[in-house]
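For anyone still unconvinced, we reproduce a single protein record, the chain in one-letter code, the fold tokenised, and leave readers to judge:
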Amino acid sequence: MADPYELPRLLSRFKLQVRRLLNQQVDLEKLTREPEYARQRLAEIEDLAEDEELLVLVLRLRDLLFPPEVQTPPAPEPLAAPLEGNSPKTGGRDYRFGARAW
């Protein structure tokens, strides 16, 4: 997070919006320290919200409190082994220099 004041600002705005629009309370300490409470409360408020700004706050807080997991890219596939019949080591033909190269 680039701005250290972003989360506190969003939390305070969120608490005030929930109080004004839904006439409900939100425990900010539990919201930031208890993931199960935060998920449950954010889902409840998302369902009840009829204000666009409140919904945006819910989404932004969810992203800050529960960042998406970074997936590691899969390991590259190993290169295919040469075919045994065409390998110079096994006495087969080597077609590296064209169709008629022997």
Notes: DSSP finds four helices and no strands in the chain. Residues 6-22 form the longest helix (17 residues).
